[in-house]
Amino acid sequence: IRLQQGQHDEALRLCEKAIEYRANCPATLGQIATVKLYCGDAQGAVKSARDALSVRIMQPPLLVNLLATAYRDCGEIGLSISTAEEAVRLDPLLSDHLATLCSSHVIAGNNAEAHHLAEKILSIDPQFRISDFAAKHPYKDPSRRVALEESLRYAELPE
Predict the structure, then answer these.
(1) In the predicted model, what is the mean pLDDT of residues 37-64?
(2) Which of 87, 93, 106 is nearest to 149 (CA)?
(3) Whole-structure pTM value
(4) What is the CA radius of gyration of the chain?
(5) Contact 91, 124 (CB under 8 A)
(6) Taking a C-beta distance cutoff of 8 angstroms, is the pair 120, 98 a contact?
(7) The pLDDT of residue 24 is above 90
(8) Cα separation, 19 vs 28, whole angstroms
(9) Rounded to whole angstroms, what are the CA distances from 25 to 41, 42, 48, 49, 93?
C-alpha cells in the first residue's frame, strides 16, 4: 500500500521489518523484491526475487516476471529475456509478462521480435494501453517509468 501511495522509503522500511519476522517466506521475499525494484535497487531486487524463488516449490509466474523486470532494470537483458520467456511459458495469456519480454527485446535491439510480441499482446488484450501498464510500476525514479513507456511505444503499442 505504501508503495502505491508513493511512499517508497516507508514501504522499504516495512518490508525490512517483515523480513525480520519471516526471513524465509517466499511472499515476504517477493514483496521486498518488488519494493527494492521500484525504489531503484534492481540488484537487490534480483537477489530477493532469486531468494524467494529458491524457497518456493512451484514458481508463480508473477514472481518470475518480477525477476525478469529486475534483470531488465539491471541491464542484464539476456537474463531478462530468458526469465520473461519462462514467465510467459508459465502463464501465456497474461499480457504483463509479454510486455516485460517485449520491452526487453526493444532494449536488446530485437525489433522484429518486439513488434511480434506487441501484436501478441494486443491479440490477448485488445484494451492494453502503455499508460495502464506503466501505472502498475510505481518507480521512485520517474525516468525508469519513462524508459519503460518509451520501449513499449517503440514496439508500437497504443498509448
Answers:
(1) 90
(2) 106
(3) 0.86
(4) 15
(5) no
(6) yes
(7) no
(8) 7
(9) 20, 20, 11, 11, 27
Q: Is 137 within 8 Å of 45 (Cβ atoms)?
A: no
Q: If you search the block for the grid coordinates 488484450, which residue do you land on?
A: 125
* CA atoms 19, 80, 38, 63: torsion sign: negative
Q: Are the CB atoms for 45 and 65 separated by under 8 Å?
A: no
Contacts of 101 (CB under 8 A, 6+ apart): 68, 81, 84, 85, 87, 88, 117
Tell me the CA distances in angstroms from 110 to 42, 106, 138, 143, one per residue in order: 23, 6, 26, 22
Nearest to 50 by CA among 117, 97, 37, 99: 37
Q: Are 128 and 102 in contact (CB under 8 A)?
A: no
- The secondary element (H helix, E strand) that includes residue 96 is helix 95-108
Contact in structure between 128 and 28 (CB atoms under 8 Å): no
Cα separation of 97 and 158, whole Å?
A: 17
Q: What tens digit of pLDDT does each residue of 114-139 get?
A: 999 999 999 999 999 999 999 999 99
**3-class SS letters over 45-57:** HHHHHHHHHHCCC
